[in-house]
Amino acid sequence: MKRFPAFSLVEIAIGLFIVGLLLAGVMKGTKLMDSAKIQTCISQILNIHHDFQKWLDERDPSAINIREFPLTEKPKIGGKFMIEDQGGKYLVSISNNGGQGFLSPQQAKEIRHYFPESTIDGCDLSGASSTCKIAVPLG
Question: What's the first-to-final CA gap in the chain, in angstroms?
Answer without folding.
Answer: 84
